[in-house]
Write a structure and sequence with these properties.
The protein is about 30% helix and about 20% strand. By secondary structure, it is an alpha+beta fold. The chain has one domain. The two termini are about 25 Å apart.
Amino acid sequence: MAWVCAGIAMVILCMSCVGTTCAATSPPPSDFGGVPFGTTLSELKQRHPEVSRNPDSDRQFQVYQTLDLKGVSTKSAAAFNIYKGRVVGGQVMLDSYNARFWYDKMVEQYGKPDTCDYCGDPELVIANWMWGNGVRLHIGGEMLTLLTEEGATQRHDWIARGDNPVAPDSGDEESDLGEAVRPVVHRRVTKKKKIATPPRPAPAPTIGWSFYYERAKNRFERWAASWSK
């Protein structure tokens, strides 16, 4: 897979808060990035027309991303997670410019985290909040991840599918929106004389979410290995 995972560490990480030891006392989050959980993909695109479908999305789980999340005072790349056509959470990429803003914002909204390491350094902090309804929030590894219980489960399954060498039908934006597949119209064409064309230049190196994804995936694999010991 090529990014998207980013936030990857959170999906299993919050599953470590099993039992009754993790239970934030504040009201649980009901939205991500100002978009309520359960918002349809169509409504999301009306609010955020700039979002684009990550190519690693499939028919079961999709990621729609933007390089500048609207409605916050600091520029932040973010991704909305979609399951069954509705928002179930998302991720915010953290860096030296916005890490303090997001950590302070989460503490202000939800109180102190259930668990926290390196709390004095927003760029190194590893913090977890978890509520009784299954909503979980994780900050760590240059990522903020907020998911509903169903969102965490489906994201975990999606990541696992990405390691499958057999690539499934990944669908597209039309199938995500539930639109019928347009029939293919076959036209009779006449053969044309082939004209030699110059070779295409090599594609530019992948940047943006793909770069972040690979880093996040590596961090997740190291984290998962440490918990399995």
